């Protein structure tokens, strides 16, 4: 069962680094468009395991449930190049009784240049019936603990969100250069 530690504050955003592999690139040495999904999903799986001590396999085994992908929105902002180190950030930006939206974005290793943004909408389903069901109370408590709270998803346009992320990266860059004053 999913057990939240009441003495712990869970991060709302997870981040990891990876390198673009040659075999994942097109002839122009850009990360192949389809491979972004692999990079994101592998990063998220590792991130939730280390940051939250959670595995989607737990849902399958313990609750006989899973999330299935319902929809993607993706923007290829700048190419990720062969042998380039990247930062992958992921976070849950929306939760309802049977749905989550995970936001992913990728930057260069410095965290200053946005490469890609992905919104993935997933539905919670029973693996026995294959039908959508409400999140279990333990799962809902877990999602509430890790979901980003200050994003008004229903009033947010995907392209506007890309601009917001770019602005946040610029702001972080300026704060880093000024010493955080």
Automatic annotation (TrEMBL):
CDD domains: 4HBT. InterPro entries: HotDog_dom_sf (IPR029069). Pfam families: 4HBT_2 (PF13279). This is Acyl-CoA thioesterase. It comes from Larkinella punicea.
